[in-house]
What does this fold into?
Amino acid sequence: MLLPCHVLLGLLLLLSLHTPASYAAATDTVSPGHSLAGSDRLVSNNSKFALGFFKPGNESSSYTNHNSYLGIWFNKVSKLTPLWTANGENPVVDPTSPELAISGDGNLAILDHATKSIIWSTRANITTNDTIAVLLNNGNLVLRSSSNSSNIFWQSFDYPTDTLFAGAKIGWDKVTGLNRRLVSRKSSVDQAPGIFSLELGLNGEGHLLWNSTVAYWSSGDWNGRYFGLAPEMIGDVMPNFTFVHNDQEAYFTYTLYDDTAIVHAGLDVFGIGFVGMWLEGNQEWFKNYRQPVVHCDVYAVCGPFTICDDNKDLFCDCMKGFSVRSPKDWELDDQTGGCIRNTPLSCGSSKDRTSLTDKFYPMQSIRLPNNAENVQAATSGDECSQVCLSNCSCTAYSYVKDGCSIWHDELYNVKQLSDASSDRNGGVLYIRLAAKELPSSERKKNGNISGFAIGATTATLFLMILLLILWRRKGKWFAHTLQKPESGIGVVAFRYINLQRATKAFSEKLGGGSFGSVFKGYLSNSTIAVKRLDGAYQGEKQFRAEVNSIGIIQHINLVKLIGFCCEGDNRLLVYEYMPNRSLDVCLFEANGIVLDWTTRYQVAIGVARGLAYLHNSCRDCIIHCDIKPENILLDASYVPKIADFGMAKILGREFSRAMTTMRGTIGYMAPEWISGTVVTSKVDVYSYGMVLFEIISGRRNSSHECFRDGDYSFFFPMQVARKLLNGDIGSLVDASLKGDMNLVEVERACRIACWCIQDNEFDRPTMAEVVQALEGLLELDMPPLPRLLSAITGGSHSVIPQYFDSV
Ligand SMILES: *[C@@H]1O[C@H](CO)[C@@H](O)[C@H](O)[C@H]1NC(C)=O
Ligand SMILES: *[C@@H]1O[C@H](CO)[C@@H](O)[C@H](O)[C@H]1NC(C)=O
Ligand SMILES: *[C@@H]1O[C@H](CO)[C@@H](O)[C@H](O)[C@H]1NC(C)=O
Ligand SMILES: *[C@@H]1O[C@H](CO)[C@@H](O)[C@H](O)[C@H]1NC(C)=O
Ligand SMILES: *[C@@H]1O[C@H](CO)[C@@H](O)[C@H](O)[C@H]1NC(C)=O
Ligand SMILES: *[C@@H]1O[C@H](CO)[C@@H](O)[C@H](O)[C@H]1NC(C)=O
Ligand SMILES: *[C@@H]1O[C@H](CO)[C@@H](O)[C@H](O)[C@H]1NC(C)=O
Ligand SMILES: *[C@@H]1O[C@H](CO)[C@@H](O)[C@H](O)[C@H]1NC(C)=O
It folds into this structure.
């Protein structure tokens, strides 16, 4: 494809701006005569990767970094992102000026001229006297013979740090025993190896490990397309993954569909595996995929004697009686050092035993640490605490109905749970502290016992009466709303057990919606659809607040939220049931039903009305963000109802993550999702336009017959745009209608759809305007070809967008 002249000129200008004089002579090779020093760079021939000395971190941060490293990064990414580091363990310390050169033995080495020492070397067995080091287009630094490029002695792909380059392997060379594994870096500044790693087991299963011993995430088995426990891997935005397992090798690798894409896959300093892409518009990395999803599911991410809480921005905190071991490391995102005791345990060593015996401090709703020792002998909480006190290495105990557990030495992996009652692993952890750390309990003990007891009894009695009253009130209210869920007085809070019963233990699955699965359920007088949310980690209070605000939104074209359930980690939403399933089933599945044109047009208007209501009429503007046929349900008389609105609010920050890892939605996503500008309600307009095309054609825009042999001119929106100019609109409509249609409406719908998918959101109409246009109250101009489409097909149209002539 030829680029227009002005684009080429622009590119050249850009390139020259990005190329300061010092690396005008940028090369990709270190050879005996050409070493690298100071701010010199090697740049791969395709300009994608650069190699040189760098200082990680932030000049303006309170800790000045005196260490520099030899590394590889993306040449064009403005935020320095190290992908590979040679000398993580042996940084070059200021003020020495290191040099990268081919040393006397033919290896590539970092030399320190001040001390005349070798800081790092490839240490390979060299069999020729003509080695050179080349930074390849895929980011691999290879040491090879200059005369024979396939004679390779060493390559950086065999010694990865925390990043898996496209085309590099992770896993085993069974012949040489080489195990390529990713190891996290210690902190955002310290490039030394950290405590987390990503390894492929010899059985071919991937694991994230803490200290090479504790696995906290497993990929599941490879099923030919993806690892069983990581199906998100094959989403549309994700690269092409491959897994190879034979006698010689067991490895995992990926390639990019587009070699120029800037994709970063690796393991971050918090032990989370991720895949991210660079958003040029935002100048920001955007993580499409991460495992584990939340920080506290990384084993011991906060180090010993800490408590991890994902609901807090700073998710690591010290346990009571402990302080951060190294505040500097904490600030640089390395919390694995954890916390240390403020006051040493007395451990019964003192003469005055009564006042100085160690005490226990209860921590509620806790995921208990691993490696508990079960003490069969102790049959009460008191006995359990005595067992712990009697051994100096014991640091905590917990007593639950299945017995007494005690822990020795350091406590790892303690997590704050939002609601312990429902979580089987949750419990109360009693941590052992020096008596001095708990002065208040001393005072309580010495207080007036009888007075305290009387006070307590009165308080209990009062509380019981209050509870009784509340319970009776609540019971009445509950019964009331349950009897008439259609009356619209708020939403019903269901018990989990009742929903379990209503759905027959979640046995009748209606669909695998975007954020969880949907099940059919039966209440005494109605049928319901129950959506079980996956990975919704939002706190209970916020979830309830959002559900209530969504619950009051009612419109004939929006699915009605009847109720919810929020117990422990369970988050469920209960909706009215739609007998005619969803639009995708009615349009794309050959099941005998063909929606006639009138119905299709009414569906189009209904969906537009529902969206217009969401955008304008209710109190806060709600952007749906995920309009697609699967989210448009049809009731008994084929009235369309939009489902899943308000998910952005209910899921909070999980939402954007979920959005981008989802499969199949990409065809409906407006370009600004990818370019990373702020999204507005116009993203829904774009998606609506895409759906409208599908309503007209009865086919998926992205179906394979639309891209015959890579020919994009068969892409349906493209055909529509062309036929609008050339006539013969009728041939665009679903052939199964056999010509039975209203041509005026067809042309209207085609024009509207084309206007809706304009690249520039300001060119798209609002949903309210779409409704008016569909109703024939607004006349539309001929739409210009959307730029995205014209770029694909190589056409060029420069109609100035101006879509309305008022009637
Ligand atoms: C570098 O790229 C240019 C084109 O951009 C090509 O002509 C040249 O052969 C390449 N050099 C090497 C060593 O691959
Ligand atoms: C450096 O750190 C400061 C404050 O710590 C922050 O405001 C600034 O954005 C950081 N700069 C970069 C380039 O990360
Ligand atoms: C280099 O060769 C020696 C002797 O042949 C051998 O013992 C050693 O393992 C080799 N080292 C590497 C890295 O292959
Ligand atoms: C490299 O070794 C070859 C013989 O193996 C010799 O002819 C050549 O001169 C050597 N080159 C250099 C640069 O030392
Ligand atoms: C180049 O190196 C490869 C690998 O060491 C070897 O198999 C091949 O024979 C060499 N080719 C020449 C022309 O020396
Ligand atoms: C990690 O493992 C090593 C050896 O397996 C052990 O010596 C070390 O104490 C462990 N580190 C921590 C923080 O437990
Ligand atoms: C994915 O990668 C494999 C191996 O690297 C390759 O054979 C296959 O063609 C790739 N698929 C696509 C769609 O690029
Ligand atoms: C304390 O517990 C540790 C670990 O179970 C054990 O090795 C040690 O013998 C115990 N010490 C005493 C005095 O019981």
About this structure: The mean pLDDT is 78. The radius of gyration is 32 Å.
